[in-house]
Amino acid sequence: xxxxxxxxxxxxxxxxxxxxxxxxxxxxxxxxxxxxxxxxxxxxxxxxxxxxxxxxxxxxxxxxxxxxxxxxxxxxxxxxxxxxxxxxxxxxxxxxxxxxxxxxxxxxxxxxxxxxxxxxxxxxxxxxxxxxxxxxxxxxxxxxxxxxxxxxxxxxxxxxxxxxxxxxxxxxxxxxxxxxxxxxxxxxxxxxxxxxxxxxxxxxxxxxxxxxxxxxxxxxxxxxxxxxxxxxxxxxxxxxxxxxxxxxxxxxxxxxxxxxxxxxxxxxxxxxxxxxxxxxxxxxxxxxxxxxxxxxxxxxxxxxxxxxxxxxxxxxxxxxxxxxxxxxxxxxxxxxxxxxxxxxxxxxxxxxxxxxxxxxxxxxxxxxxxxxxxxxxxxxxxxxxxxxxxxxxxxxxxxxxxxxxxxxxxxxxxxxxxxxxxxxxxxxxxxxxxxxxxxxxxxxxxxxxxxxxxxxxxxxxxxxxxxxxx
Length: 470
Ligand code: S3P
Description:
Helix content: 25-40%
Number of strands: 24
CATH class of the largest domain: Alpha Beta
Largest sheet: 4 strands, mixed
Structural class: alpha/beta
Strand content: 15-25%
Bound molecules: shikimate-3-phosphate
CATH superfamily of the largest domain: Enolpyruvate transferase domain
Distance between the termini: 23 Å
Shape: globular
Number of domains: 2
CATH topology of the largest domain: UDP-n-acetylglucosamine1-carboxyvinyl-transferase, Chain
Radius of gyration: 22 Å
CATH architecture of the largest domain: Alpha-beta prism
Number of helices: 13
């Protein structure tokens, strides 16, 4: 099927998925020491906001128009899921146009919903549809099928949802909602925006008030965007800095116009590359600067990074800025555990920055890294060791002892375990290391950042892909 001309009956989203869907065959890639990077780039839309734009637009009554959407595989799968449940999604030029079903009016999908590699798409959608009196089946790729879903299924069970799951509360799984769901008060046991969001979305189709108690603040896109769509949602922060988020169910959501800002998690790769490759000077436009997402920039600045924040502005209710990044001599730091939620997806590339910094960088509070697209803590530590980097992996921590000149670093092949951020991080490493760095697969980069290769090579990065058989 893949590679064939798409059938004319396929919808725009289906055609896009067919043409983008990463091949079953791995495509290794290699990055080599590069000359100064230069360029003025615009990073694709934020993944978290893009998923939510499709979901909330698909649910809200009337029309939602989205510009700047990330057209990565993960987000397209969410769009297809919403389409399978009754939303109408088309594209007019650069604008995605959605006719939503209206809150409470999603339809039972005819086939299992396939979320590919995407934890956010799967977990948030479980919340969104779990409380419907219908049956929905969730499937995904080998990485997603290994990830724990109990963190979302447990609060849904409390609301009356019946779950049939694979061993260990994993996918494939099927949800069957009750006739009428019960509102709950739920204290999120780990720092997870996905769990918080799943419960709030389940509350949308539940009578009364559903409350989420969030002891450690995580990205707040669900709260902000639901308010923008007209949900009756309030947030109160108590004396102990614990957030109480209340949502009233069965209210009306109305379609909105959304301009998705650039993804700070994708920004991290060219940003760290420019810091590490001597002589580099790049500008990255329109980056989301929501404070729940800027932990990496703060940490790199503490390490001595030359990152200028230009044109700081508000766009669609979010902080946005342009970043000018120049090559810098970095020094190791201690990254406090409390900062982890604001940079949770950025530790792999921070570890790469740390191995080219002077001294030691110590990262704590990393327990959530074990349940990402791969066990990112061990994937990073193994990748560093395969490339001659002196590091120590603890149960929830990573320490890296750097070599600012890159001497002795590189020469290894990194196992990516279907994890896009592992692949991109180690390709960045190869641009500054003494010896080339290889990754065993790069196809899954298309889940979050399809433009990565072109954008990086366009700035002068020496990265080449090849077929597994080459
Ligand atoms: C996300 C939340 C985070 C993050 C993921 C996107 C979201 O996951 O790692 O890439 O959009 O809500 P957790 O909530 O599991 O920490």
